[in-house]
């Protein structure tokens, strides 16, 4: 028998509670299939066919904003630990990724931090600059359109 086990507290015996069908309603009978819309309702536009494509959004494709690449530039004054902390806090980069970005910038001069929409990239760069200037470090980031 298919169902859920139930333990009778007094007798200590198990019995089964039968499972109801997913489509069953409160009377235990299967729910009737949904009614199809009439042809007149479909023609007038009052009701849509269940097979019709749903197009709530306009057909014109919105021009997607080009992503911007945020770069970390090397300097010989800001401590590596502080750079890693700023990358983690201001840009939401994980610790291991922040360490790799910082080391790559240290070795090659600059390193890509992440891709963001233009406004977000500019906001994060300015927040990181403000934080570094407040702490007295010349840490520098830049943002440019991704190719």
Offer a few descriptive terms:
147 residues, Ribosomal Protein L30, Chain: A, three-stranded antiparallel beta sheet, elongated, alpha+beta, 34% helix
Assign a percent range to the helix content: 25-40%
CATH topology name of the domain at 68-145: Ribosomal Protein L30, Chain: A
CATH architecture descriptor text of the domain at 68-145: 2-Layer Sandwich
What order do the strands of the largest sheet run in, or round the barrel if closed? 4-3-5
Q: What best-fitting shape do the alpha-carbon axes yield?
A: elongated
Q: Helix count, per DSSP?
A: 4
Oligomer description: single chain
> What does the radius of gyration come to?
31 Å
User: How many beta-strand segments?
Assistant: 5
The average pLDDT is 79
| Estimated share of beta-strand residues | 15-25%
How do the SSEs run, as a string of H and E? Answer: EEHEHHEHE
Major β-sheet annotation: 3 strands, antiparallel
**Poorly predicted runs:** 58-62
| The CATH top-level class label of the domain at 68-145 | Alpha Beta
CATH superfamily of the domain at 68-145: Ribosomal protein L7/L12, C-terminal domain/Adaptor protein ClpS
